[in-house]
Structures
1.
Amino acid sequence: SFAGGMASTSKVPLQSRNLPWVEKYRPQTLDDLISHKDILSTLQRFISEDKLPHLLFYGPPGTGKTSTILACARQLYKDKEFNSMVLELNASDDRGIDVVRGPILSFASTRTIFKKGFKLVILDEADAMTQDAQNALRRVIEKFTENTRFCLICNYLSKIIPALQSRCTRFRFGPLSPDQMVPRLEHVIQQENVEVTPDGMKAIVTLSSGDMRRSLNILQSTSMAYGKVTEDTVYTCTGQPLRSDIANILDWCLNKDFNTAYNQILQLKTLKGLALHDILTEVHLLVHRVDFPPAIRITLLTKLADIEHRLASGTNEKIQLSSMVAAFQAVRDLVVSEAS
Ligand SMILES: Nc1ncnc2c1ncn2[C@@H]1O[C@H](COP(=O)(O)OP(=O)(O)O)[C@@H](O)[C@H]1O
Ligand SMILES: [Mg+2]
């Protein structure tokens, strides 16, 4: 059901329980959005002058692309016209040429009951469309520009064919800054009556790197699993190694013999269900922060990069873990005095 998804996101009563917070706190109007004010005011102007062009929203996940076009649609159409005027295709719908020739074409070519105004087609995750489908879409857009507007949404602009790009007004949705995220999180924290420590808040902001959806999901899952949201519970809930875990790992690598270091890390990794890749990312950051002599730092960074490369190609985690321990042991005599 293509229009069905639209109806369910737009008509959920705000007070409903058990909703994921990302939906419960999805901005309803353009004014509710907390970022990209320049984009919002431009869109507002297009709407008020009745000159909405075809749109292309791009940028990383969780930055408000879908919320923005839904808010525009809510402003453009009354509730009762919504389903006949808006077609929303999201990730769960097929992305082949058949969708363009089928549902999209028939929606765009059907005359509107409400004579005035245009219909709106929202194509979420348009970068998943095949080249053929994109070419077919370009022809549909050209043919029905009179009475239909298209909004394409994607993460990667480069995956949209130039012929489509050039027919749309493009807007880049950048990651949200901590300044923008924190007040919004605080609003939700207050509404939901969650206890969050300052370092818990910091951990959420750090781990979500500008993705508001991710920050809300971390907040909700941590508070549901642990009650109080602290640095510890956030990292544990997301399966990310704690700073103290990483400090321990580095300490074992540099100060214990190989077998002890290897076994203790393996034990910690198993106990906490950590991925070696995540450990490696954090260890790498710590290597940058610790005051190693330059030559040693370079050797270590090169070795860590090699391990990461091998891990990415699906090699055995235990072998790569021993390689990581070995990398530190190889330089340990030179660094012990510097690192402690
Ligand atoms: N700019 C924003 N202002 C307020 N909330 C936001 C913003 N961007 C994202 N969110 C929150 O994150 C959720 C996901 O946003 P969404 O618009 O679906 O992001 P995208 O389509 O860019 O992946 C929303 O339901 C909302 O709760
Ligand atoms: Mg989206």
2.
Amino acid sequence: MSESLHTVTTLPTARRPGCPFDPPGELVDARRHGPISRYTFPGGVPGWLITGYDLVRSVLADQRFSSRKELMRHPAIDIAGMEIPPAPPGEFLLMDEPRHGRYRKPLVGRFTVRRMRQLTERVEQITADHLDAVEKAGPPADLVTAFAKPIPSIVICELLGVPYEDRGRFQRQIDTFLGGETSDEDLIAAYTATQQYLAELVAAKRANPTDDVLSDLMDTDLTDEELRGMALILLAAGFDTTANMLALGTFALLSHPAQAAAWRADPGLTDRAVEELLRYLSVAKTFMRTALEDVELGGQTIEAGTTVILSYNTANRDPERFSDPHVLDLRRENGGHLAFGHGIHQCLGQQLARVEMRVAFPALLDRFPTLRLAVPAEEVELRPETADIYGVKSLPVTWDV
Ligand code: HEM
């Protein structure tokens, strides 16, 4: 069995030129060989790469695989022999039960479908204001700064009660530590500044609670340090993911004009179109888990303590799960993509993200019927694969006036 195993040597690995929406070629090739490949982390530590839909989903559902930060190897960092500290209080993305549940449970009721639908009108208003500004300024425009970033950032800041005047500063800090192109020093500086800001925010809410998620958590037994960590996770996850979906999604629509035209012509397509863009783009592309005990997986034994890299983007392009997986088809009916993950860490903000995308994409298409790229597609600057979330750095567009 092990002779036929495929080995992937370098991660992260680049996308093929001219294929900005497809997962890196090496990962697609790996999936073709089978759903599980060998991979060696820097420092020579053995690991695995999982690229097939069924296996990725089964790892996510299996609590023998841990999300704990201190157990995780990283493809870009040689941490052999290094002591990795556990995730700080409140940063529950990188924790297992019961620590994880202590933070996730009080938030679940705040992010339900019903609660998020109630936000629709506000999201419509914020979107319309930004499209007004784009239209007024006239072509060309960068849709990253004028549309994709501000909409989710205002929404998550309002939900959490971040005052309006602090938002610019905040967005810059988050951009710095999630953009994937920052020196270690700048990264640490941005993280420290964000922590400092959140400490002030939590203290302000403690002293003077307002009508927002953070203030609501003040009457639980969560400490200020824990609340700070929770706020950090929500803000970081809430800004960057949806912003990149909106920007890369618009790039994809402008590169597939027949699909954009079909959506413009049929607003009833919106729910399916958003799910298809999530599947096709999979901006949250890779997460990791570490085996807590020996686990049999795909005919291999994953030894206790070994980290597996889960490729969500190739799982969402698995031909055994999705027909013509590399085709963007906004009418596609077979859902069940893994763009929001699966299992106990499945995206807490997915209903919020859906509301934002279901409002923002159709509003943009509707407002600018002749919207198109202002530069050749090859010149659109993409985020490097080292960024946790994939996307475009800027999206120059133009339209007829
Ligand atoms: C299109 C936009 C988004 C995408 C693609 C996305 C994707 C994901 C994925 C894949 C995970 C699972 C990570 C894992 O398996 O370890 C996750 C977790 C999470 N997401 Fe999102 N997300 C999006 C928007 C949001 C928004 C708007 C929020 C804001 C509230 C949010 C908050 C979170 C949180 C708090 C977690 C951690 C959940 C846990 O560990 O229990 N996400 N997201």
3.
Amino acid sequence: MCNTCGCSSAKEITENPGMTRRAAVGAVSAGAGALALTACGSSMDSDATAASIDPGAPAEPTDMAAVADVPVGGVIKATAQGTSVMITQPTEGTFHAFSSVCTHQGCQVNAQKEKTINCPCHASVFSTEDGAPQGGPAETALPEFPLEIKGDRIWVG
Ligand code: FES
């Protein structure tokens, strides 16, 4: 596991085989973190892991949120029964549910100020309309899950 950001990459250690773990941590603390972050954020890692990342789909249709909770033009992160999803409403009355698991290296994404979908690990940004990456190292869209409006509730899965 990456000691810098918590991602699954072991590259920062394997790229410096002569460096001890303690020395590596010290080097990161001393400002060499850019090297480790670059290793975690390489497109090679993205290609290697995106297909193997579990998107965390609800096991069955699940009541995730109230329709009124999702701002028009925005996004919320909804959690129910141990599963989190990103629910968006890009235009009034149009809803989408996307995985909350970043396709870069599997970090949990967040709803930045209820406007954008952002990953805190390496700063990928995803579209609220189709989950497509719009910035950062992620190259693959967030998977979309089936969504159904039942009354004033949003069911996902
Ligand atoms: S895990 Fe790297 S940007 Fe999300």
4.
Amino acid sequence: MAASIFTAVPRAPPVAVFKLTADFREDGDARKVNLGVGAYRTDECQPWVLPVVKKVEQMIANDNSLNHEYLPILGLPEFRANASRIALGDDSPAIKENRIGSVQSLGGTGALRIGAEFLRRWYNGNNNTATPVYISAPSWENHNSVFVDAGFKDIRTYHYWDAAKRGLDLQGLLDDMEKAPEFSIFILHACAHNPTGTDPTPDQWKQIAAVMKRRFLFPFFDSAYQGFASGSLDKDAWAVRYFVSEGFELFCAQSFSKNFGLYNERVGNLTVVGKDADNVQRVLSQMEKIVRTTWSNPPSQGARIVATTLSSPQLFAEWKDNVKTMADRVLLMRSELRSRLESLGTPGTWNHITEQIGMFSFTGLNPKQVEYMIKEKHIYLMASGRINMCGLTTKNLDYVAKSIHEAVTKIQ
Ligand SMILES: Cc1ncc(COP(=O)(O)O)c(C=O)c1O
């Protein structure tokens, strides 16, 4: 037999966060805790099907008018319109002026990918691989790969996290924007920055927008946690809405994985805000071409769930209540962890645990301390020191706090 034609294929490294979960599953220790994966867990450490989602799924199952025909290439119209509406707000000037459009996508990742592909083909001239794309340091690790795979050659980082201060490096960020070539693309986390849990304040966003406007920088918002940061959809969309009110043309990638708990249904939306309807329609016509060769047309189940929920005032209210349940549990775990570390007298300051928002917290644990947590304590977290607050429960808080205390005091 001839040798395989795949002999020369190198083995790619595993995706860190999925590898961590696989290691966690294999760990037989009863004390084990998974603080790695980016998904909500109840206080019983279980995945949560939102009650409103369960209800709407049953409505869909009982609706004999529905079928499994292909959706349009750009997706379910009522999903797209409602998804963009919650990002931009009911009285968005851009919606009123009919200068927005959207593309249903396979999760937030799909929205980023379609947006990136479009920008590479059409933004600021054709086949535009040389435009710098700026990603926060640090960021969700997939941002870099999505833009590389879309063909961008000049991916850069912008200052974001000040490790010493355990907060936002606003000056570093603004300096990088001042220095960036005009028309550079900036990926901005709309809220609940992953992995640091640190967002600019409204006043800081205003400063960021002012520089971006003056320097002709393109904002590409990634909104994966609307509702999760504060419990309020409006508060968490403040930055995107402010940029729209300032007249920016922008993209906003939305994920409904977290705020609807629809991780495996792959529900996302890419909102395009342009100067006028004509520009937006031409952009969408090109996006349709990209979708056609990527997934041809999107799946319907998740989009139907979201569209049905968002278009009924009663279901919408129930959903907001469900989102608040999740956000409140995260906030409670933050204050409980902080108070335990402070009463243990763990060296360092721990106010950042409650000041950070969203699912994640950047603990400040260094890679050796993380290794200690995993190897000795069976507590799984990312090498960066990022923990998912939803992995904490009233039952494991004491154990996690004591383990962090030990890691910080024993390992430098
Ligand atoms: C910042 C950020 N963007 C995008 C995504 C992707 O979301 P989805 O799972 O819907 O593709 C995630 C998921 O973890 C994320 O944290």
